[in-house]
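Format notes (please read before filing issues)

Several people have asked whether sequences and structure tokens are stored in separate files. They are not. Every record keeps both together, in the order shown below: the sequence lines, then the token lines. Line labels are part of the format and must not be stripped during preprocessing.
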Amino acid sequence: MIEQVDLGRTGLRVSRLCFGTGSNGWEHRSNQSDLGVERLAYLLRFAHERGITFWDTADQYGTHRHVAAALQQVGRDRVTVTTKTVSRTGPEVHKDVERFLQELGTDYIDILLLHCLTEAAWPTTMQGPMEVLSRLKERGLIRALGVSCHDFGAFQTAACTPWAEVVLARLNYGGKNTDAAPEQVIPVIEAMAAAGKGVYGMKVMGGGELTEDPPRAVRYVLGVPAVHAIVIGMMNEDQIDTNIGLVKAATTT
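Then the structure lines:
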């Protein structure tokens, strides 16, 4: 079985490998959503049987229904689920969360991220959504709050903003499709982890640009102790088994 770790000081425990459902995902579709509800739900269950207890979805990926079907099969309390909103006002975010709960068929969301932040001043511009999400967390509808960033300034801000308990960070050895070069990104991630934030890495394969050496790509990101887990989008059983093997090799040597 794949290693399970604490996601910072969030109180959440997750597998080192997270099943991503958003490859080429935007405008409410992704490669994974294109598989159909039945097929993707089966793959999520297949992965769960092999120890992948961490699943990543988002409104923009169009995979809430797929995840909901899989949760019914494996049991809600046996999975940590991340989803994300791109809404930028408090009322819109509140409506999103209500809809997400229905679409996911759950009473709570483990991790809710403000998706794709692109400005360093986001704690000011996103104050309304942050306040709404904090209240929803107090009600037990969300377990941890955080951000995904597509800008280095926004990413740096996340490191020093206590509100952000979880950060989805772009990192790979080639600096492909990331916010900055690895030597700039890693110290920020280390500061995040030192502050107790949960950090999981995306773009491990550089958005498809570093697929010539997957073992190196996985080993590089998981070789950063401040990275608690990595998310990889997977499309079939062979990819799931292969990536489990890569993560096991990277974390046991």
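For reference, the curators noted about this record: The mean pLDDT is 97. The chain has nine helices and ten strands.
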